Amino acid sequence: MITVAELAAEVASLRLRVASSESVLAIQTLKAHYGELVDRRFSAGAVVDTPTLIRVAESAAALFTPDGVWDGGPGLGRAIGREAIAARLRETTLTFSRHFFINPRIEVDGETARARWDVLSPCRRPDGTSYWMSGYEDDEYACTDGVWLHHSMKLTTVFMTPVGEGWTRVLV
C-alpha cells in the first residue's frame, strides 16, 4: 500500500511535470507570436504604412523583458531593451518575409528557460531579389508574473541564397 508521504511526493512530481509542460507550450506560443509580428511588417510584398510598422514593432518588442537582447548577428545588428528592439524592427531590410521556427529544443528550469529553434524564411529584398534564409536562434526566456518573455534571442544564419524566379507575386 502507498503511504501518504509517497503519494505527496508523486503529486509534487506530477505538479512539476505539468508546470514544465505548460511552460513549454507557452514558450512555443510566444515564439509563434513573435514570428507572426515580425512578418506582419510586410503586406502584399511591401513594407506596411508607418503607423502600422510602429505598432507592430512595439508589439514585437513587448515580447521581450525590459532589458531583453535582440541579436540578429553581423548582418542585422544587436539591440538591448524594448525601445531599442522596437527601433531596430522599424528598420526593415526586406519587403517580404515568412519566419518558420521549427524543431524547438526547449529546456525549462523553474522561471527561466533556454531553447534552440531552427529557422527557415523565404524573404525578398527591396531590389526584388528573393532568398531562402536558414539558420537557428538561441533564446533565453524569463517568466515574469506568470508570463513568458524573451530575455535574449540570437540569430545565427547558416545560409542565405537567392532563388531563381523567386517570390514575384506576394498575395498577403
Summarize it:
The protein is of the alpha+beta class and 172 residues long. It has three helices and nine strands; from the N terminus they run αββαββαβββββ.
Task: Summarize the structure in words.
With 172 residues, this protein is α+β, with helices and mostly antiparallel strands. It has 3 helices and 9 strands, in the order αββαββαβββββ. The strands form 2 sheets. Strands 3, 4, 5, 6, 7, 8 and 9 form a 7-stranded mixed sheet that branches. Strands 1-2 form a two-stranded antiparallel sheet. The longest helix has 36 residues. It is elongated and about 70 Å long. The mean pLDDT is 93.
List keywords for this structure.
172 residues, alpha+beta, seven-stranded mixed β-sheet, two-stranded antiparallel sheet, 33% helix, elongated
Spans of at least 5 consecutive residues whose pLDDT stays below 50 are none
Q: Quick one: overall form?
A: elongated
How big a fraction of the residues is strand?
A: 35-45%
Number of helices: 3
The largest β sheet comes out as:
7 strands, mixed
Distance between the termini: 62 Å
Helix content: 25-40%
Structural class: alpha+beta
Write the element-wise H/E pattern from the N-terminal end onward: HEEHEEHEEEEE
Per DSSP E runs of 2 or more residues, the count of β-strands stands at: 9
- Taking all residues together, what is the mean pLDDT? 93
Rg: 19 Å
Helices and strands, with pairings:
Layout (H helix, E strand, L loop, with lengths): L3 H36 L2 E2 L2 E2 L2 H12 L2 E8 L6 E3 L1 H9 L5 E2 L2 E10 L2 E13 L5 E15 L2 E16 L10
Parallel strand pairs: 3-9
Antiparallel strand pairs: 1-2, 3-4, 5-7, 6-7, 7-8, 8-9
Helix pairs in contact: 1-2, 2-3
